[in-house]
């Protein structure tokens, strides 16, 4: 009787078989730029006779965003333009989805692709679904190694290893590549840190060091050369810098003084030359002087008497007056007037010809 009861409680699997997804739920970690394979394989039951529908949904890491359909198979057609952020980057891996493989590939992964992906398969009356959590990590890259401080004996300084980018958590590992790879005892405990602190440095620390930084999706490395040298003559260096600065200032002052002096000399020469030209009187005209001289003689002839005619007749009319005579004002437009000789017959004197002046100033 007990055996019969067991048979009744556990029926045959063939009787209860329906559509199920065989791929387990799990989490996938991939590096940025790589391709993520999201598996979703299923089997059908004998009673699942309806049309096959496959749907992939994305629940973004940002909880404020609603679930998004990223790819769909329905009516023997594929629709993959639902989600703009994944358009052209999500594809079914199988060319025959009815064979039981609804897996997809997401190419050129970006940080925005992080989230929970859900595969839903429906073939009435069977329905199945599964979830896959996808994490996109950034490989360490652009790692830089450098010394922070003065590499001199007795000084304290640091060796630093800094990647430009990389998803946490990051692991660091230092190695000494030279001097028989002998590490100073004080550094052994810090070889797994991003920063190594060196105190009271000696020449033992000199050598080539390599730092490797890694996370779950990749690694990167860098090298540096450390040379611990004796202290430099700092006092002499500072004194030399001060002297050089003073000499440069003196040279600048001399140049400024010379330029200012030259400008003053040029200004003075221009002022003196201008004053000399203003003090020189304009040259006198011979023609104007002669006209003034003849005009004065004409005026004097009108008042001559018989008693002084004899002395006047001895005057040489061809004599050119000197330029030392002052010019008399004379209108340039009016022709010189002819002076009439006095009636000497009444006075018992002999008439004398009076010289006249032409337009050009000569005596006629």
From TrEMBL:
Bilayer topology annotation: Single-pass type I membrane protein
GO molecular function, one term: integrin binding
Alphabetized UniProt keyword annotations: Cell adhesion, Cell junction, Cell membrane, Disulfide bond, Glycoprotein, Immunoglobulin domain, Lipoprotein, Membrane, Palmitate, Phosphoprotein, Receptor, Repeat, Signal, Tight junction, Transmembrane, Transmembrane helix
GO cellular component, one term: membrane raft
Stretches with biased composition (Basic and acidic residues): 268-281
Superkingdom field: Eukaryota
Annotated ranges, domain Ig-like: 13-135, 140-227
Membrane-crossing segments per the record: 238-259
Keyword Plastid recorded: no
Protein name: CXADR Ig-like cell adhesion molecule
Source organism per UniProt: Myotis lucifugus
Gene that encodes it: CXADR
């Amino acid at each position: 009787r007990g055996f019969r009861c067991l048979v009744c409680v556990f029926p045959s699997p063939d009787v209860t078989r329906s559509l199920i997804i065989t791929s387990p739920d799990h989490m996938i970690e991939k590096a940025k730029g790589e391709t993520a394979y999201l598996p979703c394989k299923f089997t059908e039951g004998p009673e699942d006779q309806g049309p096959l529908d496959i749907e992939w949904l994305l629940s973004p890491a940002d909880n404020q965003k609603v679930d998004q359909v990223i790819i769909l198979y329905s009516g023997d057609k594929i629709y993959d333009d639902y989600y703009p952020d994944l358009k052209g980057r999500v594809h079914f891996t199988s060319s025959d989805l009815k064979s039981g493989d609804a897996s997809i590939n997401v190419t050129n992964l970006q940080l925005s692709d992080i989230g929970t992906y859900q595969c839903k398969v429906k073939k009435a009356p069977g329905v199945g679904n599964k979830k896959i959590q996808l994490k996109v990590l950034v490989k360490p890259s652009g790692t830089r190694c450098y010394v922070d401080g003065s590499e001199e004996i007795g000084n304290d300084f640091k060796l630093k290893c800094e990647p430009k980018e990389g998803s946490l958590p990051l692991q660091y590992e230092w190695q000494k590549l030279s001097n028989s790879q002998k590490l100073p005892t004080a550094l052994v405990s810090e070889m797994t840190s991003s920063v190594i602190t060196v105190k009271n440095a000696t020449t033992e620390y000199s050598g080539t060091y390599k730092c490797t930084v890694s996370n779950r999706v990749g690694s990167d490395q860098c090298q540096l050369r450390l040379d611990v040298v004796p202290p430099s003559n700092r006092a002499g260096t500072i004194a030399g810098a001060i002297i050089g600065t003073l000499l440069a200032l003196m040279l600048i002052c001399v140049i400024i003084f010379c330029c200012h002096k030259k400008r003053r000399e040029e200004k003075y020469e221009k002022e003196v030359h201008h004053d000399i030209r203003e003090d020189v009187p304009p040259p006198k005209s011979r023609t104007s002087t002669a006209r003034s001289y003849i005009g004065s003689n004409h005026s004097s002839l009108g008042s001559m008497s018989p008693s002084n005619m004899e002395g006047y007749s001895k005057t040489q009319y061809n004599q050119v007056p000197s330029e030392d005579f002052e010019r008399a004002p004379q209108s340039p437009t009016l022709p010189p007037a002819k002076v009439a000789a006095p009636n000497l017959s009444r006075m018992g004197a002999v008439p004398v010809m009076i010289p006249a002046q032409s337009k050009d100033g000569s005596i006629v």
